[in-house]
Amino acid sequence: MSELLKAKLRYAGIAPSEEQLSKIKGILLEKFDVPDIDMELVQDTSIGGGFIVSCKNFEYDWSDAGRARQLRAELNNLSRKTGDRETGKIISMLSSKVENFDLAIGDREVGTVTWVGDGIANIDGIEHAFYGEIIEFEGGTKGMAQDIREDHIGCILFGNDTGIRQGTRAVRTYKEAGIPVGEAFIGRVIDALGTPIDGLGDIKESGYRPVEQPAPGIIERQSVNEPMETGILSIDTMFPIGRGQRELIIGDRQTGKTSIALDTIINQKGKNVICIYVAIGQKASTVAKIIQTLKKTGAMDYSIVVSSTASDMAPLQYIAPYSGTAMAEYFMHQGKDCLIVYDDLSKHAVAYRAISLLLERSPGREAYPGDVFYLHSRLLERSSKLSSELGGGSITALPIIETQAGDVSSYIPTNVISITDGQIFLESDLFFEGMRPAVNVGLSVSRVGSAAQTKAMKKAAGSIRVDLAQYREMAVFTQFSSDLDETTKNQLAHGNVLMELLKQPLEHPLAMHEQVIILVAVGAGRLDMIPVKKVRDYKERLLAYFETEQGDICEELSKSGDLSDQLKKKILEAVDAFNDSENKILKEELESGNH
Ligand code: ATP
Ligand code: MG
Questions:
Q1: Which of 226, 421, 478, 513 is deepest in the core (most CB within 10 A)?
Q2: What is the pLDDT of residue 184?
């Protein structure tokens, strides 16, 4: 070893004595195996007391700040290990731990920033960081190691990069990215790192969870067996969703994608489901409107909003869905049911593309990096229904994807379609025709949900999908013909009524028993003679009649969840009674056949 090794010693108040210096030198000489060391002494009051020695890319910490950090970490570890909440025990354990606590010399790896910009920093000098490790920069900004190369590491930044410049020190923390979680977050709006942004003060967390977490394995799961009702007739009847399922909502812009997710959240009132809405790259005003809707309908009482708006940096948009999922996992492992909405994953993929290009990863199809499939698969795979031994909790995911001109075969849509257990396809044409929600019955599918559908719903829904498909075909076929036979006319009338029934205004979810009553009535053709324009009005009055006059039917339906032949008969009798008592005007119209 010919060249003299340089080291820098920072001290707070008093410079180290000769004896201390020689001891420190001894440690360094042994570690780096060199004959001598050139030690530079610098005063730095920020370390509180003691001193810190940096040599090559290592840092030895004898400072007060470093010791406090070690003690804190040790105590954190301890409380995580025990899980025992009895204060007395913890205090005695703590005191014995503190007595035996042996202060090790803190040894941290440090590097320097060589390049920074657009929420990315390259760091030179850190050789051992792991993927996803949190790196702390001078000034407190945190980042996450995303790209580990031979000569440098690429880091995405979670804070303002204005204080970071070439030469800024960056320190390894040996920790993975995590967010605070807990019951206190319910009803709150947080950013992608778990910091409250609703101005309602601090949130007391119950613990921390890593943002990235492996998905539950096969043994830890069970199949979907409980319904997650959306309250939207066209979805619950034809594309039922189960707790633990992943159902994609896909469609062009402004086709009602967010509305379906929001209505589903609103419908979870009183159903013991915790809802998490993750906004990714949305306009801040859109997010504000969504929060307003949730508050107005009382859904905020059981919801959490994780918001990363379009003005946030790409790294925050990238991390937001994982943070939301970490929050959901906290509840799932307590045996609770969660619903998580990712609005939307197209923008998530775009944020990830921006990061990847800045990190100089090679672009692939549509300029997305090669691992963009993994980006969404590792996210959605975490939604599951846990086995009964593990508490039976679940995460149901409703990812949203925006398509361009209805093209479901482009890169990101096909990826997410193949990851999820089905999709609800929304179509602009239907939306503009006034068919809202604009669900395309032919292209939508739910692959697992029927196992979770209530018996009553399954029986009542019967052939509705086939009827609709036949109607559509017939409607196109008979578009220009005038003299139709009676059966075709009836089929068209039935289809028209069905289509009209599937239209549903916003924020008006239907309970399971209401949906069943409508389906039974329409299935038996009891609504076919109602003029299309009056169907919506009729439906509302019919449901009101059942609610006030036929409470026992509603109760039996929602309690048993089954539709016996007897009950079906009872419903039809009640519908007939209602039809009889309908006002004269309607009757006259019916009799004159004025469709
Ligand atoms: P974006 O692509 O901008 O995110 P989106 O697909 O999420 O749009 P929404 O914001 O949910 O669409 O809805 C678009 C508009 O359509 C809104 O103004 C909403 O009020 C209206 N809308 C959605 N669903 C319905 C419905 N069932 N009945 C009436 N209006 C609806
Ligand atoms: Mg939207």
A1: 513
A2: 96
* 140: CATH: 2.40.30.20
Give the structural domain span for 473.
460-594
Segments of the chain scoring below 70 in pLDDT: 1-3, 75-107, 583-587, 589-590, 593-595
307 domain residue, yes or no? yes
Q: Is 252 annotated as a binding residue?
A: yes
Last residue of one domain, picked from the residues 176, 200, 229: 176
Are residues 157 and 211 part of one domain? no
Q: What pLDDT shows up at residue 1?
A: 45
* Pick from 590, 566, 514: nearest CA to 545: 514
Same domain, 391 and 270: yes
| Gap between the Cα atoms of 225 and 396, Å rounded | 12
β-pair type (207-210, 178-181):
antiparallel
Q: Enumerate residues with CB within 5 Å of ligand 2 (an ion).
A: 258
Q: Is 172 a catalytic residue?
A: no
Q: What is the pLDDT of residues 474-509, one digit of tens each?
A: 888 888 877 888 888 888 899 999 999 999 999 999
**Ligand 1 atom at minimum distance from 400 CA:** 7
Residues 553 and 464 placed together within one structural domain of the fold: yes
Tell me: do 501 and 529 sit in the same domain.
yes
Catalytic residue among 169, 221, 378, 447: 447
Cα 272 to ligand 2 centroid, rounded to whole Å: 25
182 is in an annotated binding site: no
Cβ atoms of 396 and 404 within 8 Å: the answer is no
Nearest ligand to the C-alpha atom of residue 426:
1
Both tokens of residue 504? Answer: 């549903």
- Quote the pLDDT of residue 92: 62
Nearest CA to ligand 1 atom 22: 256
Q: Which pLDDT score, from 0 to 100, does residue 501 have?
A: 94
Ligand 2 mean position, distance from CA 297 (Å): 18
C-alpha 252 to ligand 1 mean position (Å)? 11
Q: What's the token pair of residue 580?
A: 């009889």
With respect to residue 536, please indicate whether it lies within any of the assigned structural domains.
yes
Asked if residue 380 and residue 357 are part of one domain, the reply reads yes
Ligand 1 shell residues, CB under 6 Å: 251, 253-259, 402, 436-437, 504-506
Rounded to whole angstroms, what are the CA distances from 45 to 10, 51, 52? 9, 10, 11
The pair phi, psi for residue 38, each rounded to 5°, is -100, 110
Nearest to 157 by CA among 174, 168, 144: 144
- In the prediction, which pLDDT does 23 show? 84
The answer on whether 204 is annotated among ligand-binding residues is no
For residues 129 and 238, membership in a common domain is answered with no
Number of domains in the chain: 4
pLDDT digits (tens, 9 = 90+) for 519-539: 999 999 888 888 899 999 999
Using the mean position of ligand 1's atoms as its centre, give its distance from the Cα of residue 561 in Å: 31
Kindly state the DSSP code that residue 4 receives in the 8-state scheme: P
Listed residues 453, 471, 499: the one ending a domain: 453
- The answer on whether 251 is annotated among ligand-binding residues is yes
The C-alpha atoms of residue 423 and residue 449 are separated, in whole angstroms, by: 11
Domain CATH number, residue 478: 1.20.150.20
Q: Note whether 164 and 187 are same-domain residues.
A: no
In whole angstroms, give the CA distance from residue 313 to residue 99.
Answer: 45
